[in-house]
Amino acid sequence: MRKTITLLFLCVSLCGFSQETINAMFYNLFKFPNSLPQNRQLILKDILDEYQPDLFMVCELATENAADLILNTSLQNQTDPFARALFTPDLSDPADPLQTMVFYNTRKLTLVSQQKLPTVYRDINQYSFKINVASNNPIYLEVFVAHLKSSTGTANQQTRLQMVQAVTQQLQNLTQPDTFVLFAGDFNFYRATEPGYQEILNPANAIQLIDPINAPGTWQNNAAFSYLHTQSTRVSNAGFGGGANAGASGGLDDRFDFIMMSENFNTSTRLAYVTDTYKAFGNNGNCFDKSVNDTDCSGIFSQNLRNNLYNMSDHLPVVMQFQLNESLSRSTQVLKPTIWFESANVHDKEIVLGIDSSKAMVPTKLYVYNAVGQMVETVAVNNQSSIVINIEHWAAGIYFVKTNAHASTLKFIKK
């Protein structure tokens, strides 16, 4: 009888705790939604239905309406509710309208804040998440999404390095203990010896980042890495419009798309990378210099999926999975920031803040405090959606911004 009770207790205990997974995907959507074919949001819906991402990171998003198309159409079949980050224009190069963005499962993730890291070429977006665990011990996830400079040559490699350094420098400002980090994007790396790739892996970084697949080498035009290649999905770009709007051709022979992760995903007992889940989604590993939907490229990824990927973009998505060894909170809500950084939060001259005027209570004032709680500045909002705070003559140190309408607080550093 005692054994029966013990077994029953163990069953109830184990069944009461359900492990969760977090599926991550990065995808270069190629000038979405402007490039052919039309109605690509429906093609994307079929792709997302198959993978079911919880964190969907993208680049080459043309407009805010494009973001809404993905949220309201491409993600409509997901089991859990989704939200997206705020769409803010590129500050580094206003002439280049293509943006990065994240979409996320609100049952599993809460977006706490976001900011842009201006670089020499394009902005890099940083998104700060909390995972909705039931315990009082939060799990922090910082997500960086980038689209680095393309093309070969020393000058382009140097530009990519400088862009990566904007992220590795920002790692110094992540002060929450055991913060998890993902750095995803179209990196346009041709080989592992590139300075930008080596900078990501630099063991001297404030938070150690690693390549989950650990496959160093020369990836371009190398059949040994065919399982990792993400561009181009097409041997020919005929039928996809003309010129640059048609995308790249030549078949799968480049590893341009990455998701890098912090080393603690391999050591943590709370949130862990699931071994062998990092994939070039849709690449069966036998498609070197071929279109992804070539009938000779059969394998675990179906012909129907590969047809969709062929039509959707000249890139393949990259995916990976994480196991959460804790229960999720039963009550979660989408937290849309009231204020957010439109500039980097580390600067020597000015800080630019975006303000959400759609709230029931719209902020009319911003208050800036120093590290010891003294108010150093009051800023009138005056119904503006963007505020510039000049900090050039302030003392170096840590500052905090609050509003008079909500509890939102942002931290920035004056260099």
Q: Report Rg.
A: 22 Å
The count of strands amounts to: 21
Shape by Cα distribution? globular
**Poorly predicted sequence stretches spanning 5 or more consecutive residues:** 1-17
What structural class do you assign from the helix and strand content?
alpha+beta
Span of the ends, CA to CA: 69 Å
Overall mean confidence score, pLDDT: 90
- Determine the fraction of residues in helical runs and give it as a percent range: 10-25%
The ordered string of helix (H) and strand (E) elements is: HEHEHEEEEEHEHEEEEHEEEEEEEEE
| Number of DSSP helical runs | 6
* Main pleated sheet: 7 strands, mixed
- Range of strand content: 25-35%
Signal peptide: 1-18
InterPro entries: Endo/exonu/phosph_ase_sf (IPR036691), Secre_tail (IPR026444)
Keywords: Signal
Protein name: T9SS type A sorting domain-containing protein
Quick summary of this structure?
The protein is built from 6 helices and 21 strands. It has about 425 residues and is of the alpha+beta class.
